[in-house]
Amino acid sequence: MKNVTLDELKAIPALQTVPDEQLEWLLANGETLEVEEGTRVFEKGDPLDKTLFLLEGRIRICAEQNGKMREIVALKPQAITGYLPFSRATLTFGYGECIDKCRMFRVAKAKIHEAIKLHYELTAAMVHTMTSRVRDFTSQQQQNEKMFALGKLSAGLAHELNNPASAISRGASLLHDQVKRLPALFKEVAALNIAPEKLDKINQILISKTQQTDRPVLNMMQRADAEDDLADWLTEHGIKDYDIAENFAEFSFGPADLEHLHSCTPSPQLDVVLAWMNNYLLQEKMVSDIRESSSRISELVSSVKTFTHMDRDTDKQPLDIHAGIRNTLTMLNYKMRKGNIQVVENFDLNLPQVKALAGELNQVWTNIIDNAIDAMEPNGSGTLEIRTQLDRHFVCVYIKDNGTGIPEDIQSRVFDPFFTTKDMGKGTGLGLDVVTRIIRQHNGTVKVTSVPGNTEFTVCFPLTDN
């Protein structure tokens, strides 16, 4: 086996500025290893007590995400992995496997500690390696968590979009059927001999009913009673099209309105007029349904666009904290309805704006609110309360749920990376870690208090971005 040389260490970019005598010291305190392809260099949970300098070959590092082992990074020659100075990690979070036959140099953790006291440049180079590794890993994990969060939202969003889209398709088909009936109805109406003043009265009734803005909303029993009253009147007057009763009841027609129409158009003219009015009202209803469904789709698309922050810069911008919260609630609306969860908003709408990245804050709200929904799931229902207020020089958001709570002995760990209480496949253990990192980037704070039936996350942002 070929021992590692000084030139090989100097070829590692992270060590190029380290004096030769310090690299020679490193050579004297480590050992050369050769590892065959397919061999595990370390397993998940092994003590993080060695530093590895990869000289030849490649190492794949994998960790568990969403219940599955996934590749985190593939290390190439001249990479440094394992323990690094001042790292707080004590155990490996995944496993490392040689993709190709590897040749590496290994130094024990105790010797790295010794180097901290003896060799400044060597220590500085390795600390720089650690900070770069943390930065790259954090960026990758935040992106993974963002995609995981969007994946959780996608099913609900698809359902939310499918409902109005189906309503539009159904309404358009029915509207087409009604339009096809217009020529025949026009022929029948044109054959009627109705005085102009009576036509004006019929038009007035029709316009007043379709333009009525304070139309009462009937419950099932009230609606059934209204339809029965209209059906009885139609039967008494020899009109057998009972579909008219259902449609006229929706537009708040009553027997008195039918009497008024009857006074303008006695039978058999009334049958033709009611059929024409029914066709008109059905078209009005379908156009209204299509308009509402289209508006709902536009609202959802707008929420998605704002949620993902597609049309803004990557710099922090002054923003209203409530906009992102409301967009997040829109995105999670299907999941909350499915969980029978009521949302209570206690917003101080006079709060000053905060300087932030809207897309990243949406990740914060998504992770916290989604966790709250999951915590209330075992109860079959729940209440999510979101409150905002100004606390001296901070804008604070309080998100409270009445779910199962967080056991006291693990409350201090919920913000740790990869820690999760969810079943395999339901969480990565990165959600609240991402929350913490994003809040720190905004110079804010996040904390949690929890007892069974009352868990509250408090997120605060400074008004001045120092």
Molecular structure report:
- It is built from 13 helices and 15 strands.
- The chain has helices at residues 6-10, 20-28, 109-118, 120-190, 196-210, 220-236, 243-250, 255-264, 269-307, 321-331, 333-338, 358-376, 431-441, and strands at residues 30-35, 40-42, 50-56, 59-65, 68-75, 80-82, 94-98, 102-108, 317-319, 341-346, 354-356, 382-391, 394-401, 445-451, 454-462.
- It has a five-stranded mixed beta sheet with strand order 10-12-13-15-14.
In whole angstroms, how far apart are the ends?
A: 55 Å
Radius of gyration: 34 Å
Into which percentage range does the β-strand content fall? 15-25%
Please write the string of helix (H) and strand (E) elements.
HHEEEEEEEEHHHHHHHEHHEEHEEHEE
Q: Treating each run of at least 4 consecutive H or I residues as one helix, how many helices?
A: 13
Q: Which residues sit in consecutive blocks of at least 5 with pLDDT less than 50?
A: 423-430
The geometry reads as elongated
